[in-house]
Automatic annotation (TrEMBL):
Pfam families: DDE_Tnp_1_7. Residues 22-159 form the PiggyBac transposable element-derived protein domain. InterPro entries: PGBD. It comes from Periplaneta americana (American cockroach). This is PiggyBac transposable element-derived protein domain-containing protein. The lineage of its organism: Eukaryota, Metazoa, Ecdysozoa, Arthropoda, Hexapoda.
Amino acid sequence: MTSFAQLSTIQIRVDEMAASYGETVTFTIHLDEMELKAFICLVFLAGIFKSNHEDVDSLFTTDGTGRDIFRATMIKERYLFLLTALRFDSIETREERKRQGNKLAAISEVFDSFISNCKRNYCSSEYTTLDEMLVAFRGRCSFRVYLKGKPQNYGLQIMFV
């Protein structure tokens, strides 16, 4: 698949980190495309559940308060390992991208692929409705906006089709 064409590069990074854990650790095994997709889906689900600031231990708890989908997909140690090992950024081209001024350069290739997939799979019609929303965000971000009339003045402006 073209969206996961860099899986070999990702695998090299995972293998390098796995070597530092030693041979007896089982959660550093080879990464395949299906597991990568499952991991990305878990990260999306953490955002959907508004669990991005929640402790990872609480996502994987078995006392009824955790998220069953996380435990059913992979073990906590594997999730944490992949969260640490996976990067969209290449250290070899980092300085060049900084000089070009592209602040989203670390994820621009993945984001561009996402946008092209959205365009390819969705066709708007004459009945299309456009909407926008302001997602509250007070952190540091170059594209954070200030809108005086909104309940949350600072945030990220998102346009929907």
